[in-house]
């Protein structure tokens, strides 16, 4: 079954493949090696070549623009429910606006002013919400929508949050108008 010639071919195939890998590694090292020597040591008269591209960053002591603190009450006064409806499109994956129509998350009809964790028919609340607050006030909703896991550690909501305060205010205004 295995004669000497077959065994020789198998060994030759492995040696040939190994040789191709060694030559490929040597060729890649030659083509892509920038410094000219190995191990971080440089031959006499050879300069170290910088690798990569420099990334310019602002100096810590420099004049960096500070973000303005925006008053949430002012944002709520100027909130646009129409813009909030567009923001809600991201929420539609898990939440519904019809009363009692729970999905992955509880329905959001009348959520502004509703007690936290009391959506009828929704029993998958994590318990972390109840510890964070009593009622979904606009302020509580703002804090929760900014960083759900930061406001209610242990919440089962996997959404990372809305970073733009205007978007949060618009969304809350839209949710507030759902129950007339």
Automatic annotation (TrEMBL):
<protein>
    <submittedName>
        <fullName>Cytochrome c</fullName>
    </submittedName>
</protein>
<keyword id="KW-0479">Metal-binding</keyword>
<dbReference type="GO" id="GO:0009055">
    <property type="term" value="F:electron transfer activity"/>
</dbReference>
<dbReference type="InterPro" id="IPR036909">
    <property type="entry name" value="Cyt_c-like_dom_sf"/>
</dbReference>
<keyword id="KW-0349">Heme</keyword>
<dbReference type="GO" id="GO:0046872">
    <property type="term" value="F:metal ion binding"/>
</dbReference>
<dbReference type="Pfam" id="PF00034">
    <property type="entry name" value="Cytochrom_C"/>
</dbReference>
<dbReference type="GO" id="GO:0020037">
    <property type="term" value="F:heme binding"/>
</dbReference>
<dbReference type="InterPro" id="IPR009056">
    <property type="entry name" value="Cyt_c-like_dom"/>
</dbReference>
<keyword id="KW-0249">Electron transport</keyword>
<dbReference type="InterPro" id="IPR002327">
    <property type="entry name" value="Cyt_c_1A/1B"/>
</dbReference>
<keyword id="KW-0813">Transport</keyword>
<keyword id="KW-0408">Iron</keyword>
<feature type="domain" description="Cytochrome c">
    <location>
        <begin position="79"/>
        <end position="179"/>
    </location>
</feature>
């Amino acid at each position: 079954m295995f004669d000497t010639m077959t065994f020789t071919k198998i060994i030759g195939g492995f040696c040939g493949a190994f040789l191709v890998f060694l030559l490929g590694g040597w060729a890649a090292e030659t083509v892509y090696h920038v410094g000219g020597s190995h191990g971080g040591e440089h031959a006499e008269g050879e300069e170290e070549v910088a690798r990569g591209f420099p990334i310019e960053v602002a100096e810590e002591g420099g004049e960096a623009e500070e973000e303005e603190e925006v008053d949430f009450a002012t944002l709520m006064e100027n909130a646009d429910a129409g813009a909030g409806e567009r923001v809600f499109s991201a929420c539609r994956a898990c939440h519904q606006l019809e009363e009692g129509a729970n999905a992955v998350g509880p329905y959001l009809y009348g959520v502004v002013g509703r007690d936290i964790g009391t959506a009828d028919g929704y029993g998958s609340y994590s318990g972390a919400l109840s510890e964070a607050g009593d009622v979904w006030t606009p302020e509580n909703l703002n804090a929760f929508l900014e960083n759900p896991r930061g406001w209610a550690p242990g919440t089962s909501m996997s959404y990372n949050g809305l970073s733009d305060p205007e978007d949060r205010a618009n969304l809350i205004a839209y949710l507030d108008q759902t129950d007339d």
